[in-house]
Amino acid sequence: MHPLVKKGLLATVGIWDPIWIQWYRLKSGEKGPIPPFKNRDRIGARDIDWFLRSGAADHRTFHDAIGRWESRDPASLTILDFGAGCGRILQHFIPDGPALAASDVDPTAIEYLSKAFPAIRSVVNSSRPSLPFAGGQFDCMYAFSVWTHLPVALQDEWLTEACRILKPGGLLLISTMGYRALKLLREGNNPLESDWHAISDADLKARGAIYYEYPIFSQDDELFSGISASYGVAVHDPGYIRRAWSADFEVLEIVEGAFREHQDLVVLRKS
């Protein structure tokens, strides 16, 4: 689709979105914040029902993992959502009662979060460390679909930064893509992901972590201003994670297919 045509269609949808949100509230009884179309579109969650249901499901996965490894009352914890977007997962942590903070590379997402959840400290981060938080500030940090899109060297930089802001014994929960995702990439028909078609399970096993970058956002697309004009996909072998990520962390568990059966859950504890 021509970029101008796409921009026009998205703008039209955006105009009608407030009406659609009100209709959805009447139909569903939903009373919580629903971000506008522009924010949902930037994280690939245009459909309101999917935005809310998937956020609740992914929150449950993180919430349950924290409960497995942290015995304290959730309301006593300090938790950072790293790569929070417009709060798809974050808003479901609010009833648990922890002290929450959020960061994202997208300034429009942080602008929305600051207005929708003023009690939560929400900050814009750059694509490279560091974060504007004190050392040893958080009991937990979680990141959904962040390490899945970082080059390997940058993954290591952010692991170091996560270690800095976590308290001793703090938990770091990360979604990654492993062999299940590799199968989907290898068999997919997205031309932007053609590099993955030739990558076998044996290749991933041998290399440990593989990252391919491809353009996904147009430099001239105003919808995605403030976000890098390139994008990538990273896939990890669980054995690599246990070896490479254990310098500052203990790898507590790796749950394959924890998120909608194609993203894995990695739980780390700061050493």
Topology record:
Blueprint: H1 3-28, H2 37-42, H3 48-69, E1 78-82, H4 90-93, E2 99-104, H5 107-116, E3 121-124, E4 138-143, H6 152-165, E5 166-176, H7 179-187, H8 201-207, E6 209-214, E7 231-236, H9 238-244, E8 249-259, E9 263-270
Account of the protein in words:
By secondary structure, the protein is α/β, with parallel strands linked by helices. It has one domain: Rossmann fold. It has helices at residues 3-28, 37-42, 48-69, 90-93, 107-116, 152-165, 179-187, 201-207, 238-244, and strands spanning 78-82, 99-104, 121-124, 138-143, 166-176, 209-214, 231-236, 249-259, 263-270. The strands form 2 sheets. The chain has a 7-stranded mixed β-sheet with strand order 3-2-1-4-5-9-8, sandwiched between helices. Strands 6-7 form a two-stranded antiparallel ribbon. The model is unreliable at 1-6 (pLDDT under 50).
Keywords:
single chain, 271 residues, alpha/beta, seven-stranded mixed beta sheet, two-stranded antiparallel sheet, 9 strands, globular, disordered N terminus
Domain count: the total is 1
Mean pLDDT: 90
Helix fraction bin: 25-40%
Low-confidence stretches: 1-6
What's the alpha carbon Rg, rounded to whole Å?
19 Å
Distinct helical segment count: 9
Percentage of β-strand residues: 15-25%
Helix-strand topology string: HHHEHEHEEHEHHEEHEE
How many strands?
A: 9
Main pleated sheet: 7 strands, mixed
CATH topology title: Rossmann fold
Write down the overall geometry: globular
Tell me the structural class: alpha/beta
Q: In the CATH classification, which architecture applies?
A: 3-Layer(aba) Sandwich
In whole angstroms, the N-to-C terminal distance is 49 Å
